């Protein structure tokens, strides 16, 4: 690949996608890479001097000026999130080309990009949904094979009452729940190596104690050693990512609330519900940031902004406002 002086962009796109495939991205992700690279590349080719078909566009033609023009055209009909994703893809593409010795530098820093929009919270829908979920999982379902309601309740209650991420839940040890009665806490190995402490209220503590006692009955006292995984499957083995997701999905189905779980949220909906309820009850962005382990205050602020928006929408739905239309005359 290094013995040629010039390279056509489509050939290099294929080289980049082959290199990325070794990371095992999903087919959807690879399709998104291709779509962004080809879409912006075609716009650049149309704006080259003279205009070219994409198949004939050399990588040396991709100057900062041409890329700015292509991205301006690409951005016009699209949302900021789509433009930001395409910019990141092209930045990765040029980083790859620099590493391969194809181009001397990456022109993307000279191309402006929109600020990445913060993900919007996706809590469970419905005011009574968390309570309905907890009530359902606390009872053994007749159709379950080897029901274990104490474990299921512990998983859902822990997620709803602490807001832990999936990876953080899986990393918990029995000894992670510590402290004297009335001062119980969960010691969390947070994202990015940032540890944090989340208080455990007496009600949640009772649920966890009942779960561990049921675990002793099933697997013996050795199963609850401090260094043992806190969350286990029905064989006493540590829960893995897929097993935990499946467990939470089955709890949603048993509670009859699958239609109240935002698409793509799954277990994260429980974390978002925890944070949203904190905001509704008056917690500050700084408090939410500490409890959820966010790296920036902006992520925590979204919960407060969404809550404020919901409150305004609720007020706006009051039919009395429509009665006021036309009642005030302006002289």
TrEMBL record:
<keyword id="KW-0238">DNA-binding</keyword>
<dbReference type="InterPro" id="IPR050090">
    <property type="entry name" value="Tyrosine_recombinase_XerCD"/>
</dbReference>
<dbReference type="GO" id="GO:0015074">
    <property type="term" value="P:DNA integration"/>
</dbReference>
<feature type="domain" description="Core-binding (CB)">
    <location>
        <begin position="7"/>
        <end position="98"/>
    </location>
</feature>
<keyword id="KW-0229">DNA integration</keyword>
<dbReference type="GO" id="GO:0003677">
    <property type="term" value="F:DNA binding"/>
</dbReference>
<dbReference type="Pfam" id="PF02899">
    <property type="entry name" value="Phage_int_SAM_1"/>
</dbReference>
<dbReference type="InterPro" id="IPR004107">
    <property type="entry name" value="Integrase_SAM-like_N"/>
</dbReference>
<dbReference type="InterPro" id="IPR011010">
    <property type="entry name" value="DNA_brk_join_enz"/>
</dbReference>
<feature type="domain" description="Tyr recombinase">
    <location>
        <begin position="119"/>
        <end position="316"/>
    </location>
</feature>
<protein>
    <submittedName>
        <fullName>Site-specific recombinase XerD</fullName>
    </submittedName>
</protein>
<feature type="region of interest" description="Disordered">
    <location>
        <begin position="110"/>
        <end position="129"/>
    </location>
</feature>
<dbReference type="InterPro" id="IPR002104">
    <property type="entry name" value="Integrase_catalytic"/>
</dbReference>
<dbReference type="GO" id="GO:0006310">
    <property type="term" value="P:DNA recombination"/>
</dbReference>
<dbReference type="InterPro" id="IPR010998">
    <property type="entry name" value="Integrase_recombinase_N"/>
</dbReference>
<dbReference type="InterPro" id="IPR044068">
    <property type="entry name" value="CB"/>
</dbReference>
<dbReference type="Pfam" id="PF00589">
    <property type="entry name" value="Phage_integrase"/>
</dbReference>
<dbReference type="InterPro" id="IPR013762">
    <property type="entry name" value="Integrase-like_cat_sf"/>
</dbReference>
<comment type="similarity">
    <text>Belongs to the 'phage' integrase family.</text>
</comment>
<keyword id="KW-0233">DNA recombination</keyword>
